[in-house]
Design brief:
tRNA processing, alpha/beta, EC 2.7.7.-, 2 domains, two-stranded antiparallel sheet, transferase, binds zinc ion, UPF0021_CS, Rossmann fold, 392 residues, tRNA-binding, 15 helices, binds iron/sulfur cluster
Length: 392
């Protein structure tokens, strides 16, 4: 006797919903999945009628399903939104070039306008070139900071009112865990918000998938046969997030409500009055929103362009100290005063009598270039398999 769908009690159940563990047929799964996202959009007032919305599109499962579902709901419930696809080309050969092909097909399939912005055009550096320069340890710091700003710049050029991203419930729960482990109060408060950056200087970002399980997004894409790109980035060594993710998956296997429970816990945490929080201001160089004199992207770029790739990587206090050293531009006391190099502006070739020659230059530290994190560590932990227990 086949197991019947717990919703319609008529058709044969095809999967157990990862979120609830209940058996459902394909049609009821689609209906429940879409209704829950519609409910999130409505209750959180994510959009207003007539708004222009850019969907951050990477070609991956989350953003592909987001584009498909937003288009479907926009038509079904007459949201009155003007939807666009916005993609960032980080310049990662063998990864982003292929995934962008998927986005271009999605553009045709969903009939949505597409804009692509590249790191190379915006910053003069591709991720391939950055990794060549900095090695494979802090590449995601550069990539994340640059992508955030690139999305904003793309959104501004499209004149959109909001950016919708495919961050799902697992991503939010993972980020909460990471911020707790790091004691990052400011980020902890921000990461649970369903709308961020809604201050006058920024374009608000919304997360319609905040309560949507990653496994359900995969199941939806799988049953709907959506065209998405599933390969991991070749430079994905983000071990810290990988561990948080593995931990979360272990907990989810024991109790499926873990993901939502963590999100609810994160939402209930609030910062005590009187705790000093970063004050947002504008970057003196590019005008982008920043909690320091210069935004992180400008500091990282400065480092890349000056051959000091570690500038901007790490704690703000250390970064400020490094910046001060660069800006002070102490002249070298050796004869070779005109040539500058490293944090102390001392040429590597400076005579050993030069007092600055002996100082440790972090940017010439050989250890820096050796990958200390195993490649593809993320691959093992991010692959979502729809196991036999979920597909009936
Ligand atoms: Fe960029 Fe790192 Fe993501 Fe690759 S894994 S796209 S380098 S942030
Ligand atoms: Zn059913
Ligand atoms: Zn800046």
């Amino acid at each position: 006797m086949p197991l019947l769908c717990s919703i319609c009690k008529d058709k044969r159940a095809l999967l157990k919903r990862p979120k609830t563990g209940t058996p459902v047929c394909k049609d009821c799964f689609y209906w429940a999945f879409e209704c829950e996202i519609h409910h999130t959009i409505q209750t959180a007032n994510l959009f207003k009628r007539g708004e222009k919305v850019a969907i951050g599109a990477s070609g991956g499962k989350d953003s592909t399903v987001l584009a498909y579902v937003l288009k479907t709901l926009n038509e079904r419930y007459d949201y009155g939104l003007n939807l666009f696809l916005l993609s960032i080309d980080e310049g990662i050969t063998g990864y982003r070039d292929d995934s962008l092909e998927t986005v271009k097909r999605n553009q045709q399939q969903y009939d949505l306008p597409l804009k692509v912005l590249s790191y190379q055009d915006l910053y003069g550096w591709s991720m391939d070139a950055i990794v060549k320069q900095i090695g494979r340890k802090n590449n995601c710091t550069f990539c994340g900071v640059f992508r955030r700003q690139a999305l904003d710049r793309g959104a501004m050029s499209l004149g959109v009112d909001k950016i919708a991203t495919g961050h799902n419930a697992d991503d939010v729960a993972e980020t909460i865990i990471m911020n707790i482990l790091r004691g990052d109060i400011a980020r902890l408060q921000r990461c649970t918000a369903i709308i961020t950056g809604d201050d006058p200087s920024g374009i608000p970002r919304v997360k319609p998938f905040k309560y949507t399980y990653e496994k359900e997004i995969v199941a939806y894409a799988y049953f709907k046969k959506l065209d998405y790109f599933s390969t991991e980035c070749i430079y994905a060594p983000n071990a810290y997030r990988g561990h948080a993710r593995a931990y979360l998956k272990d907990l989810e296997a024991i109790r499926s409500s873990t993901i939502i429970d963590i999100i609810h816990s994160g939402e209930m945490m609030s910062v005590k009055e009187g705790v000093k929080m970063p004050v947002q201001t504008k970057c003196k160089k590019c005008g982008y929103i920043s909690s320091n004199e210069f935004c992180k992207a400008c500091v990282l770029l400065e480092g890349l362009n000056k051959g000091l790739p570690r500038l901007g990587v790490g704690k703000t206090s250390k970064v400020n100290q490094q910046l001060k050293q660069v800006n002070d531009s102490k002249s070298c006391e050796c004869q070779n005063k005109s040539t500058k190099c490293c944090l102390n502006n001392v040429p590597k070739t400076a005579p050993s009598s030069c007092p600055n020659r002996s100082k440790n230059c972090e940017n010439h530290d050989a250890k820096f270039d050796s990958p200390s994190v195993k490649d593809n560590q993320m691959d093992k932990t991010t692959k979502i398999c729809l196991t036999n227990s979920e597909i009936l």
